[in-house]
Amino acid sequence: MEIKIDPDKCIGCGTCAAIAPGSFKMNDETNKAEVINPVTDSEETTKMGAESCPTAAIVIE
After folding, report:
1. What burial letters (b/e) apply to 37-50, b meaning 16+ CB within 10 Å?
2. Are 10 and 32 in contact (CB under 8 A)?
3. pLDDT tens for residues 9-61?
4. Inter-residue contact 22 to 45 (CB < 8 Å)
């Protein structure tokens, strides 16, 4: 599973990090989401976090 976040689309709402804190975190300097490596959430939780993004900035392959 590869997770990508488009920083141009990310608005920093933090929903992904709230739902899947073992997959995503918010960068305090850029106020954008980042992927945590290695991801410690289940695949299902990670997908829920990605799908919660209001701008579809997160893509899972």
Report:
1. eebebeeebbbbbb
2. yes
3. 999 999 999 999 999 999 999 999 999 999 999 999 999 999 999 999 999 99
4. yes
Number of domain units in the chain: 1
Report the candidate in 41, 49, 38 with the shortest Cα–Cα distance to residue 16.
49
Helices (H), 1-61: 15-19, 43-51
Query: What is the domain-level CATH number for residue 42?
Result: 3.30.70.20
**19 is in which domain, residue-wise?**
3-60
